[in-house]
Amino acid sequence: MTSLAEQKNTLRQEALRRRRAMDPVARVEAGLALAHHAQELPLPAGAIVAGFWPIRDEIDPRPLLESVRSAGHQLCLPVVVEPHLIFRAFYRDSVFEPAGFGTYAPGADGEEVRPDVLLMPLAAFDGFGNRIGYGKGHYDKALAALEVDRKVHCIGVAFGLQEVASVPAEPHDRPLDGILTEAGYRRFSNL
């Protein structure tokens, strides 16, 4: 019998294989489509929204982030530090530097903020809001720290082909509140 970790790793590898095999033009078009669905996101007025800098063959959320900024929200990006991610505000004139795990974010002089909403990268997700990350637990640790005083709205951002039938969830796994793909926003919770 395989462990939950082994099951998750198999699902992760299968979803990432499908993602890598995407046509490059379709990949770009999907990233641009995210911006057209920005108004579907349940963002509180003036929310601080954490995006992410795309790595490898992830969907590119940067057009989406510009739409979110234009709607009046403050943006921030994650930085890999110990014991968990921190988030630094960014603006059009921010100077970026490597932020761990192949990503970029404002440097140490950037203002650290607490996001209200996390737009999260992922390897795979299911129709119940369960997600599989990249296996490092960065977002799990960050959420545990952020949600000590209040809930953070978690929205996965991915290509639709990263959906799997079922993700084996463990007790510490925090489900997504929704998912945004090139097809639009889908809500999993009542938020």
Task: Note the total helix count.
Answer: 4
Query: Major β-sheet, in short?
Result: 7 strands, mixed
Helix proportion of residues, in percent? Answer: 25-40%
- Total number of strands: 11
CATH topology: Rossmann fold
- The assigned CATH architecture is 3-Layer(aba) Sandwich
The top level CATH class name:
Alpha Beta
CATH homologous superfamily? NagB/RpiA/CoA transferase-like
Q: How are helices and strands ordered from N to C?
A: HHEHEEEEEEEHEEE
**Molecular shape:** globular
**Fraction in beta strands:** 15-25%
GO molecular function, one term: 5-formyltetrahydrofolate cyclo-ligase activity
Binding site for substrate: 58
Binding site for ATP: 8-12, 131-139
Cofactor: Mg(2+)
Structural commentary:
- The chain is an alpha/beta fold and 191 residues long.
- The protein has one domain (4-187): Rossmann fold, CATH 3.40.50.
- 25% of the residues lie in helices and 23% in strands.
- A 7-stranded mixed β-sheet has the order 3-2-1-6-9-10-11. A two-stranded antiparallel sheet has the order 4-5. A two-stranded antiparallel sheet has the order 7-8.
- α2 packs parallel to α3.
- The longest helix has 17 residues, at 4-20.
- The radius of gyration is 16 Å and the shape is globular.
- The mean pLDDT is 93.
